[in-house]
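Long-time lurker. I teach an intro course on protein structure, and each term I like to show students one example going from raw sequence to a predicted 3D structure in token notation. This year I'd like something fresh instead of my usual example. Would anyone be willing to generate the tokens for the chain below so I can use it in lecture? Attribution to the forum is fine with me.
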Amino acid sequence: MFEQAFKNIDDILHKDAGASSELDYTEQTSWMLFLKYLDDLEKEKAMQAELYGKTYQCILDEKYRWSTWAAPKDAKGEFDHNNAMTDDDLLTFVRNELFPYLAQFKQKAESPNTIEYKIGEIFNEINNKLQSGYTLRDALEIVDTLSFNSQAEKHELSHLYEIKIKNMGNAGRNGGEYYTPRPLIRSMIKVIDPKIGEKIYDGAVGSAGFLCEAHDYLRFDDKGNSRNDLSTNDLKTLQENTFYGKEKKSLAYVIAIMNLILHGIEAPNIVHTNTLAENIRDIQDKDRFDVILANPPFGGKERKEIQQNFPVKTGETAYLFLQHFIKILKAGGRCAIVIKNTFLSNTDNASVALRKQLLEECNLFAVLDLPGGAFLGTGVKTVVLFFEKGKPTENVWYYQLNVGRNMGKTNPLNERD
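-- Reply from a regular --
Happy to contribute to a lecture. Here you go:
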């Protein structure tokens, strides 16, 4: 339904001097998609309010609503080319009026959990990079043909958006940090088996692949149909109190928000922050989660002041994340985390201390050894650790995945593997 529209948007952006990579295409598409989504959401809420004889108070002033500046319609409901801004007028409005107006919602919002706060956060973090007002006008007209009104439409848009994220991962330039292969994520979720009512967390959320797949695992059956055994209360729980994440990088944060919105989460509980800047000694019971799913960045050289937040001092980013995850997991909570396979054998003090902590405080019930090439663009060998907090490890089931072929862009990890 919408596949051609996404291709057309990419073709248009490709011609603009301001957008030069897959990361740029995804970023620029994201802010336009978000504002179109917001417009559809506001119209839907206004119609619902009208049915009950109530009045809906729109979030955005009329001047800044999508249907006013991006896609004005004439009396027949058709696109009004006579009143649509274009060229320098459009660029000036977007740069000097629209983005500053949207950015100030961050200060005005009642709490970080509101859609108002998300609007402000997103438009504090990204800019319109397109240099031609004609290019922007063409892109806006195509985005306007997309609709967020039905679950089927959102489902297709989420699928197309995932392809864009995957293309970012394939494009290099650290794109891999945005994309964990979905077959791997789905397998990790099946083993952990989250339930409705549990709080699910990813402290290195990236593009929110783990949270989106966890949502689909809980919301749909094996054939992709909505589960009919979920109550109104279950759906409200999924919407508001199930999925949580933190992300340090601006672009990844914006993509995570958009990805979760397309999967049906209206105001995602994603915080734009550096998870490792929090002292894990300050974590209390109320902060803890039932399920953790993550593929934290590895390598890295975390600064000394960041390392002070952790009992085991190390510059290795993934080791700090592992300490954070163990601490923030509830007793009886389950975790699946991707980490470099050298974690299992390194003899440095940090590796030894962290392995000891993991085995004594948690039941490491399984280790999945992944083949080289499982992650596109990197030759790093990785494993997945599956553990439950609250009792020591007795037996570890170790499984070495051998797919019997060289893996790469044309032979990625798949469901059969």
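Some talking points for your students: The chain has a mean pLDDT of 88. The radius of gyration is 22 Å.
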